Amino acid sequence: MHACSYLNYFGWGGGWIGMLLAITALVLAVYFIFRLIGRKPCNFDRRDTLNILKRRLASGEITPEEYEKLKNVI
User: Fold this and answer.
1) Of 26, 30, 31, 42, which residue is 20 to 30 A from 60 by alpha carbon distance?
2) φ, ψ (nearest 5 deg) of residue 72
């Protein structure tokens, strides 16, 4: 007669090794779920980009021609 073993963790064998594998899989699953849920949306808009371009123009990093070219790309 075959009895159901409660120590057979997800088919990975019983004992400590099976239990450690099951716990590791559970921890990794929870970690990745929280990473996916915890992502913040990117709120970078066109105004931020234009402000960066204006600062670069004011500091002399880019020329007025480069500024106009980059502004048209945005």
Assistant:
1) 42
2) -70, -30
Query: Could you report the per-residue pLDDT of 32-47, keeping only the tens digit for each?
Result: 998 888 876 666 666 7
Query: Whose CA is closest to 21, among 34, 7, 40?
Result: 7
| Single pTM value for the model | 0.40
Q: What is the 3-class SS of 3-25, one letter each residue?
A: CCCCCCHHHCCCHHHHHHHHHHH
What is the token pair recorded at 53?
């371009």
Dihedral of alpha carbons 13, 19, 21, 27, sign: positive
User: Hunting for tokens 């009895």 — which residue is that?
Assistant: 3
Contact between 10 and 20 (Cβ < 8 Å)? no
